[in-house]
Write a structure and sequence with these properties.
7-stranded mixed sheet; about 400 residues; 4-stranded mixed sheet
Length: about 400
């Protein structure tokens, strides 16, 4: 076996398909985000970031930074172990209480990322409930898919947001079969939203559990930032809510919120929780401050929605192929992986605009796109510059305009 040849071939295949990913070396400018400094290897450039998941710029909020500094000075840097072995700091306990309160659940459990929360929880549930069938939305995130696969149980894929297809699958199963419907609230690449209440109706009708990924909605929707389920008044009907601290809350980490018994089982059986060093206490402190702030402040959410609507309108008026979206996500269709990478390279090199190309397998082939995430700190001037740059790049590469 020529190991080097195999490795070269694997990378070459990605390059040939236009799917090879290059990391941009950037420094976010605290207090001035979405501005950042881009390290080119030959020097530095000031850029504007248009693809961050720090949706509300809470990663630079004074209350969040103050809480992190205070915790760092108080308890030090690391947690010092797994949650079971010296790694449960009081900040973790307070954060889990904050999260269970946010979602109106009895309990919550912290993980080091949203990916791990999905992977560990779904794989564990498959082992806990004998014969469990997981019904997974066709566009579910890779972390959910991986967790379902690793669980080793039966699964059914239902067409994206297609309630008729979901019911067909449920109807075909014996009544005594344990079932779990796994889906997201906001789908981050298309920006569409699941009919959570209607899915819960089907779950009640066919005695199924519900597992809802709210990572692109927590902090952003609902009177207190509880997500789409809170906005729609159905949070109490969802059995397990999974979320992240790394997007709207501006920190790092993931979690589930559910009944005390469900959380206790996952806590006690999930290897992805048991054998992982717990989140740094300073990060937990920052998350507490961020969640607490967004439970009462509407300013950030309202500004975020206004900025997204403004950008969609400006892109549409400019004849650019902005894809329909019911949420804050603003996708712009390119439709070719090589061109998508060339577009983003040109935007960065010539217009100081940073946005990553979104290619397969994140989205289906032929739907490659730019995924823009406007936030409260993007000004009208920022947006006009983006629209101008996109028009120039579209013209240079002869890309399709809006139909």
């Amino acid at each position: 076996m020529d190991y080097r040849k195999v490795l070269d071939g694997a990378i070459d295949a990605l390059v040939d398909e236009g799917r090879y990913r290059v990391f941009a070396d950037i420094e976010r400018q605290c207090g001035d985000f979405p501005k950042a400094v881009y390290h080119t290897g030959e020097g530095k450039e000031n850029i504007t970031v248009w693809c961050s998941n720090d949706y509300l710029a809470m990663g630079q909020h004074p209350a969040v930074l103050g809480a992190i500094h205070e915790a760092l000075d108080s308890v030090g840097a690391g947690a010092g172990g797994t949650r079971n072995i010296a790694g449960t700091n009081h900040y973790h306990v307070k954060l889990e209480a904050e999260l269970s309160d946010l979602h109106g659940k009895e309990s919550a459990l912290l993980f080091t990322s949203g990916y791990i929360a999905n992977d560990a929880t779904l794989s564990t549930l498959n082992k806990i409930f004998p014969g469990l069938v997981i019904l997974s939305d066709a566009l579910n995130h890779a972390s959910m898919i991986e967790g379902i696969k690793r669980g080793g149980g039966d699964k059914k894929i239902w067409r994206h947001n297609d309630l008729e297809h979901l019911e067909e699958l449920l109807q075909a199963m014996p009544a005594e079969t344990p079932k779990l419907i796994a889906f997201e609230s906001v789908y981050s690449m298309d920006g569409d939203i699941a009919p959570i209440g209607a899915i819960c109706d089907l779950a009640d009708k066919y005695n199924a559990l519900t597992y809802l990924d709210e990572v692109h909605a927590v902090g952003l929707y609902g009177p207190r930032g509880g997500g789409i389920a809170e906005r729609d008044g159905v949070m109490d009907r969802v059995d397990i809510i999974e979320g992240t601290l790394a997007k709207a809350f501006g920190i790092m980490g993931g979690y589930i919120a559910s009944s005390a018994k469900m959380v206790d089982v996952v806590r006690s059986y999930a290897p992805g929780f048991i054998f992982t060093t717990s989140l740094a206490p300073a990060l937990a402190a920052g998350a507490i401050a961020s969640i607490s702030h967004l439970k009462t402040s509407q300013v950030e959410r309202q500004s975020h929605q206004e900025r997204a609507a403004y950008l969609k309108r400006e892109l549409s008026n400019a004849g650019l192929p902005v894809m329909p979206s019911a949420s804050h996500i603003v996708p712009v269709l390119v439709g070719d992986p090589v061109l998508c990478k060339q577009v983003t390279d040109e935007l960065l090199a010539q217009h100081q605009i940073y946005v990553q190309p979104i290619n397969y397998p994140t989205v289906p082939r032929g739907t490659e796109r730019l995924r823009l995430t406007p936030g409260p700190k993007h000004t009208n001037d920022d947006m006009q510059h983006l629209v101008y740059a996109l028009q120039a790049v579209w013209k240079k590469f002869g890309l399709r305009s809006a139909a």
